[in-house]
Amino acid sequence: MTAGPIPAAEGAVSIERRGVVVIGGGPAGLAAALGAKRAGAGDVLIVERDRSLGGILNQCVHDGFGLFLYKESISGPEYAERLAEDAIREGVALNMGTMVLDLGPDRLLRLNGPGGYRLVRADAVVLAMGCRERTREMIGIPGTRPAGIWTAGSAQALVNLQNLRIGREAVILGSGDIGLIMARRLTFENIRVKAVLELLPWPGGLERNVRQCLKDFGIPLSLSRTVIEIRGRERLSAVVTARVDADLKPVAGTEETVPCDTLLLSVGLIPENELSRGAGIALSPATGGAIVDETLMTSSEGVFSCGNVLHIHDVADWASFEGFVAGRSAADYVLGRREAGATVRVTASGNIRYVLPHAVRRGAGGTELSYRVARPARGLKVEARGAASGRIYGRRILARVVPSEMQKLVLRAPVDEDIEVTGHE
Ligand SMILES: Cc1cc2nc3c(=O)[nH]c(=O)nc-3n(C[C@H](O)[C@H](O)[C@H](O)COP(=O)(O)OP(=O)(O)OC[C@H]3O[C@@H](n4cnc5c(N)ncnc54)[C@H](O)[C@@H]3O)c2cc1C
Fold this sequence. Notes:
Number of helices: 8
Number of strands: 25
Strand content: 25-35%
Bound molecules: flavin-adenine dinucleotide
Oligomer: single chain
Shape: globular
Radius of gyration: 22 Å
CATH superfamily of the largest domain: FAD/NAD(P)-binding domain
Number of domains: 3
CATH class of the largest domain: Alpha Beta
CATH topology of the largest domain: FAD/NAD(P)-binding domain
CATH architecture of the largest domain: 3-Layer(bba) Sandwich
């Protein structure tokens, strides 16, 4: 929700001055605030529109979080609690129930919360607003508009936070991690999951989730299949499914009617960048997030980005690690420690769908790149190659790789030319 330019009448509202302001109190925002504090920033404030810290983690009651950060498997709420307790203990200030309406020039923020409407000028801003789910309207499934259709994340909130029984027989469209986790969760709630359908010829979520959430419970996964029609008047009564061809178009004669009263959609996540767009921050069409350098600074001076608002993460720990980097960089910025200098571009080609950061300061060494492949592969040779010299700055051979898993590659030498990250079998 971008509220547009700040009207002249607001000149009368006094402007509060703050140090590092983090927008969003999910794992990325909490880690960013901690990263900024630990790097010496005196005044660090999290602005969170919800009443509790933790973001999406609060509805993820299953375990499997924290394997890298805490070296143990904990639930989403436990993970959120640990980070939040650290943030509070280390003196991070909080504005809860407060929505950032707009990010204007020179990091002027418009806020609305319990104290009313405020203007805040930040010395540095960290964007950590997370993502939202794609809906039925975005993928255009024809048919009626009955009750019983939810995005997988909203169904997760209804079941886990409000203890509601959302139906009896379900079909799940999309095999992203949230859809897989909800297939298992609905089974625990005695809701029969008749099928999980995936448009692509491979699963959208992590392999461990396919195994632990579907195979272990005998839930069928149909690849290259989609929902082509929704039926029902008041309540969903059935979905019509069909196989799709190589162009992802339904194949005539493969239709099947599946009676059900519940359809969950797990068809993709979109970084929540309305504030960034309003601020004129350059966004990447490949990730839907900001274009950043190795300090995670966006095209807007003093504005950093991390977590799902930067690119979609499969594992919360990666969002947190990115938050620590963004927070530390924001502290460096406000304390005048940021190293200036020209940057080189980092681009993706071959089977690499995208790579982050998009730019690295000339002479910087040891930069960790995050990337995803476009399609599953075996024996994929990934190389970070100097565009001018052909020199190899980093290399990995991946025995097996899928698009759902984010990968990392470290640039082993200081860079002084554009880098192309390629992936070939
Ligand atoms: C349903 C689901 C299940 C998942 N399951 C797992 C799992 O099992 N294991 C795992 O490791 N990872 C899992 N993940 C991934 C992991 O949880 C996410 O990658 C991680 O939580 C992203 O953190 P974030 O801080 O970027 O975003 P979020 O957690 O979404 O936090 C963003 C915060 O920003 C706030 N906000 C947004 N806009 C504004 C604004 N304008 N003003 C103020 N506040 C704002 C939001 O209220 C929210 O609290 C799951 C993700 C989802 C969506």
